Amino acid sequence: MARYVKISCLSAPQLRVDPKTDLQETVELMIRYWERQLEQVLPDNPDIIVLPECCDRPEKSGYPLDRMKEYYRHRGDRIRDYFAGIARRHSCYIAYSAVRELADGSFRNSTQLIDRQGQVAGIYNKNHLVEGERTKGDMLYGKDAPVFETDFGRVACAICFDLNFDELRLKYVGQRPELILFSSAYHGGLMQQYWAYSCRAHFAGSVYTHAPSSIISPVGEIIATSTNYYHYVTRTINLDCEVIHIDYNGAHFRKMKNKYGDKISIHDPGLLGSVIIASETDEFTVHDLIREFGLEPLDDYWQRALAHRCAPGNLEE
């Protein structure tokens, strides 16, 4: 059955604050800053809002590291709790990316997924820090790659430098999230699209304003981006979808459309040899379609092709 999810990704520069500013005032300035940013997307009633990496950190230029740590300690969970209140009042999820201090005094660069009730549904700690985050920022590398269950689907997170490392991506490939939330200070270029296709997942990236925030389909196609004029993007996607290769499946596509018409969609991004099939109705799921027409999902096709290559007599001596 169709599972429509409305996603908003917000691009915003870090707020420049004089380091001499009182820490409580800095927290209040940060909350007012994010109030203004959220006003741009809340009228669209998104199901989830994705924020950029370290979204509530004062702009680092001219802000001493020791003062930054003082700010983190004073801020505590105040800004997270502000976002939790927004999530609760607007019945949406928020991917809140920020540095946080643990009980042992060490820090993590984390995404906290806040649910519609304002509760923390899960925490992802950045697995692949930039070295300076460890050597200067007292942060520890995260080791887990959790996938979170939400009321619309399975969600995974990545943060900035993470996008360069196959180790994390392959963990997600095995866990099959339906949506990857990417909070970042850098865009990543083609790696965003590669992650989406490799994980067979939609990808929602929130990046600072020097690069666009994007929503990407499971075939690596950019669905929507923020622009140089408007530093946010909102788009509805359908998570009841599957990537299907044209080989051995394409002969069924016309029969499917003839029977179900606009109750299904078959989208070809071109050049890839694979399409996205989705159920656009409450009457059946995309997996019902796959069973009815005997379709083979892309990963099953790859596995069958590899097994055939290695079958006795098929591989050169």
TrEMBL record:
GO molecular function: N-carbamoylputrescine amidase activity
Membrane-spanning intervals of the chain: none
CN hydrolase domain: residues covered: 5-239
CDD domains, per database record: nitrilase
Keywords in alphabetical order: Hydrolase
Entry's Gene Ontology BP terms: putrescine biosynthetic process from arginine
Domain of life: Bacteria
Pfam family, one: CN_hydrolase
Gene3D superfamilies from the UniProt entry: Carbon-nitrogen hydrolase
Family annotation (InterPro entries): Aliph_Amidase/BUP (IPR050345), C-N_Hydrolase (IPR003010), C-N_Hydrolase_sf (IPR036526)
PANTHER family to which the protein is assigned, alphabetical: BETA-UREIDOPROPIONASE, NITRILASE C965.09-RELATED
Protein name: Carbon-nitrogen hydrolase family protein
Taxonomic lineage of the native organism: Bacteria, Bacillati, Bacillota, Bacilli, Bacillales
